[in-house]
């Protein structure tokens, strides 16, 4: 079945440094790739998404890049702050679906002050 | 800003019992989803619902599971005879209709514990 691989599983950075999380996928039919942030015990919240017709999207300190040829997409967080600490999930729209999201296994990001 | 709501926030039940998890999607949304997340693991798709019927379901969504939209606002997930391995956080999500409307908004979840 369709799968999304996400790396690393844990990431620890110093406040102010950048963090990069990478995901790869197998199905080429996907055209929508969201990223969700989940704080402990809370709901996943969309932080940024990208569609297959663009290669990069930026929103303040957060950016996402997409390489459809290589089937990978990445989340970049610059100038990290302690409140960025959370689990980040990449996801993709299942091919040919009504919007079912397939999630990666998550990256636990810790930003040390 | 409108949000998806879910009740209860926590549910403890005995193995073999039936549970019903409730969700109120965002009011003008037409696509509804249930996902589950076993503690420490990734979010997994269970079922999608559109136009009063199931549009897709995963292998997890077996005969023990059912969904219903009993009225114009609620969307429920029923587990007929719970098993220990059903213990998880269950998230409801909804999204608007339209080609460009791909964002799914998640509810706060119901933490289900089966003893």
Task: Sum this structure up briefly.
The complex is a heterodimer of chains A (113) and B (115). Chain A is an all-beta fold. Chain A has strands at 4-7, 10-14, 19-25, 32-38, 45-51, 56-59, 62-67, 72-77, 86-93, 101-103, 107-112.
- Secondary structure class of chain B reads mainly beta
What is the CA–CA distance across the termini of chain B?
A: 37 Å
Largest sheet properties of chain A: 6 strands, mixed
| Oligomeric grouping of the chains | heterodimer
Q: What percent of residues of chain B are in strands?
A: over 45%
Mean pLDDT of chain A: 92
Q: C-alpha Rg of chain A, in Å?
A: 13 Å
Total number of beta strands of chain A: 11
- Alpha-beta classification of chain A: mainly beta
Low-confidence stretches of chain A: none
Written as H for each helix and E for each strand, in order along the chain, the element string of chain A is EEEEEEEEEEE
Q: What's the end-to-end separation of chain A, in Å?
A: 41 Å
Instruction: Give the overall pLDDT of chain B as a whole number.
Output: 93
